[in-house]
Design goal:
Blueprint lengths: L6 E3 L3 H38 L2 H24 L11 E7 L4 H20 L3 E9 L5 E9 L3 H5 L4 E8 L8 E12 L5 E3 L6 E6 L15 E6 L4 E5 L5 H29 L13 E6 L5 E4 L5 E2 L2 H5 L4 H11 L2
Length: 327
């Protein structure tokens, strides 16, 4: 993976257009916010001069709204990496533990789907492998929206769940693990060179939970990138061609992310820190029994409202991460 021709960033006029659009997307909300603050200041001065309690109440309400907008812009300012503005690919994998972990992986997929709905992001399932009894073995989601990767990159790592098992007849407490990896989606401005000779492509019949076939043709596609050992697959589409396209999209994103990690390690000599996002070292714990708590072990941010978090309310967790590791 040290091949200098592995990928290249094509510097074209399209890049300048894209960068200009990104800058406008950052500046226009700030200008609008500045105008709103100026208007509120004018109303406040007028209300004080005329001693108008109604207008004062209106200004107070407007300032409360503007406070939220200022906080949102402070968070947006933390998206410093060029990749932050990109769409994201989110891969979820169940850990050891059978049905328990597969159910937990599906809970995480729902959590991220709900989070994306809250932010107006578009979500498409590129691949999903159902568990034998419940949940999923793994899934890959494509998330499209402004700064989708910038927000979701905080989720990469191992997630730990503690709860009373709904699958245990004795209703004992179980601990489950699932891993989440987030990659910036590679667009046409970045060329990831993939040699066809480096790929092993296998086709097979897509199956649903319980082993029943979705269709009777070998439409599912599994691609192995031999130099890196990365394996991706897609089986959600009925068309083998579309599944191959989806698998290649995931592969390109993973190879690009791998290259960025290698460059970061070489520049900063922080190879040991990669263990922080490796299997076996959880970044976050979700506890449903004997008490309720979600705690991020990187930032120490925590809340007792675990159900809100599992319903997609991740903003506090993500913003704390961005402030600590970006700000």
């Amino acid at each position: 993976m040290n091949d200098p021709n592995f990928w290249s960033d094509k510097k074209t006029s399209d890049d300048a257009v894209r960068e200009s659009k990104t800058l406008r997307a950052r500046l226009e909300p700030l200008r609008a916010l500045e105008a709103k603050l100026s208007d509120a200041a004018g109303l406040l001065e007028m209300a004080r001069e005329e001693d108008d309690a109604t207008v004062l109440a209106d200004v107070a309400g407007e300032l409360a709204t503007l406070e939220g907008e200022v906080a949102a812009q402070e968070t947006a300012a933390l998206f410093a990496s060029p990749d932050d503005a990109r769409n994201a690919i989110v891969s979820i994998h169940s850990g050891a533990g059978g049905t328990e972990s597969m159910d937990w992986a599906e809970m995480l997929m729902r959590m991220y789907t709900r989070f994306c709905e809250r932010h107006g992001f578009q979500v498409a399932i590129l691949d999903s492998s159902p568990g034998e009894e419940a949940g999923i073995k793994g899934a890959s989601l494509e998330v499209k929206g402004d700064f989708a990767y910038g927000r979701l990159k905080a989720e990469s790592g191992v997630h730990r769940l503690v709860r009373l098992s709904p699958y245990d007849s004795a209703h004992r407490r179980h601990t489950s693990f699932a891993s989440v990896f987030v990659y910036p989606e590679v667009d046409e401005n970045i060329e990831v060179e993939i040699n066809d000779d480096d790929l092993r492509i296998d086709t097979y019949r897509a199956s649903s939970a319980g082993g029943q076939h979705v269709n009777k043709t070998d439409s599912a596609v599994r691609i192995t990138h031999l130099p890196s050992g990365i394996v991706v697959q897609s089986q959600n589409e009925r068309s083998q061609h579309r599944n191959r396209d989806n698998a290649m999209k995931i592969l390109r994103a993973r190879l690009y992310a791998l290259k960025l990690e290698e460059e970061k390690a070489r520049k900063n000599k922080m190879m040991e820190n990669q263990k922080d996002i490796a299997w076996g070292s959880q970044i976050r714990s979700y506890v449903l029994h004997p008490y309720t708590m979600v705690k991020d072990h990187r930032t120490d941010w925590q809340t007792s409202d675990v159900h809100a978090v599992l319903d997609g309310d991740l903003d506090g967790l993500i913003e704390e991460y961005l402030h600590k590791f970006t700000g």
